[in-house]
Amino acid sequence: MMNKKIMLICILCVMLSFTGSSCLDTEVSNTAPDPPPASNVSGILLATNNSGEFWTRNYIMIGSASDSRRSITGVTSFSSDPDSLCIISGEKNVWKRSGFLSNRWGVEVYSPLNGMLTDIEKIPSSIDAGIVIGQQGAGLGHVAMTSDDGFTWVVNEYSTTGIFRGLRAIDFDNSLRGIIIPERPEDSTYKTFDGGYTWIASPPVPGINYKNDVCYYGSNVETHPVVCGNLGSIYRINFPFDTNWVSTSSGTQENLNGIDFSGLVGIIVGDRGTILRSDDGGESWSAVQSGTTKNIKKVKFHLNFLLAVGDNVILRSTDYGITWIVARDEPKELYYDIYLFQPYGVVVGGILD
Question: What is the C-alpha separation between 322 and 288, in angstroms, rounded?
């Protein structure tokens, strides 16, 4: 009888091997990041005027009545006026121009791209200029630029070497230099040196894990990008204009979802309350206590002040991310992005019915 059981187990393992599975595989699944919640979520925008101690919730209805129940996945301001915001909904690629200080909701709606929008970014030191990136069918990507605070857009589907592939996150070092990372590990990264008008394909970030976010670190004289992704993966470039990515130990196997730097001090946030901190430009990382076990999606610096947001929770820090406190814990609220200009701040997301 024992021999029969052993033979059955061996046969099962052989069958699983043909499907790419393993009897000994106990690792966390390395899959694409979760898409935004679907139709049972209404969009929300939370505003604070006291550095995140208290928040006011606003419901955001976008698109037509049938399309209005959508979570908001990105927010920024292209303008010098902090009361002028642009928000995106990744599920229906809807842009909405709004203001929160004067409650100017629903002024206009824009749809510059077809497909899912994945990130939105202001071009530093520019007036009314910004970029949105996204994905469409068959793993393709696309970019749209504005130079008039979102009123008009120019769409670009091609880098200097061909069609964009699977764009996930974007960051700018200055008004000219920026980088886009793909979601999938096999796709190219893209760099610009002219403010986003042209993009040059570069070698992929190494590793087999999906990539989630990118941020430049360093001083005005010398800055380099750092990327975080699934299963604790972190990669950085050590020299200007270099294309060689170096793997950095994170000390965790949790998915790492968001990253931001203030000079050489960096914070990465991830699943199950993971927060990592670096004070040497991302060469080394150490875990800090977050005070939550919820998945954290995004983090933003303003001087020594930070906000971090995720599933049901908003965290704040006033000491460069050394210590954190829970500023909001709402079971039905999901948060995806932050726009911060202390003492004001905006968090966008969705609320479950």
Answer: 7
**Distance in angstroms (rounded) separating the CA atoms of residues 170 and 190:** 9
Phi, psi of 70 (to 5 degrees): -135, 140
Cβ–Cβ under 8 Å, residues 350 and 71:
yes
Alpha-carbon distance values, 329 to 115, 259, 309 (Å): 32, 21, 10
Written as six digits, the tokens of 289 are 């206590």
DSSP class of residue 67 equals: G
Question: Letter for the amino acid at 183?
Answer: E
Q: Which residue has the higher pLDDT, 306 or 72?
A: 306
Residue 272 and residue 295 in contact, taking contact as beta carbons nearer than 8 Å: yes
The pLDDT tens digits for 243-302 are: 789 999 999 999 999 999 998 999 999 999 999 999 999 999 999 999 999 999 999 998
d(C-alpha 254, C-alpha 257), whole Å: 9
The reported pLDDT for the residue numbered 32 is 55
Region 94-115: mean pLDDT is 58
Mean pLDDT of 48-61: 85
DSSP string, 174-243: SSS-EEEEESSTTSPEEEESSTTSS-EEEPPPSSSSPEEEEEEEE-SS-EEEEEEEGGG-EEE--STT--
Compute the mean pLDDT over every residue in the chain, rounded to the nearest whole number.
81
DSSP state of 66: G
Closest CA to 281 of 223, 329, 234: 223
The pLDDT of residue 309 is above 80:
yes
- Measured between alpha carbons, how far is 167 from 154 in angstroms, rounded to an integer? 17
Please list, residue by residue across 199-231, b when 16 or more beta carbons sit within 10 angstroms of its beta carbon and e when fewer do: bebbebbebebbbbbbbbbbeeeebbbbbbbbb
- Answer whether 308's CB lies under 8 Å from 52's CB: no
- Average confidence (pLDDT) over 16-36: 41
pTM of the predicted model as reported, rounded to 2 decimal places: 0.85
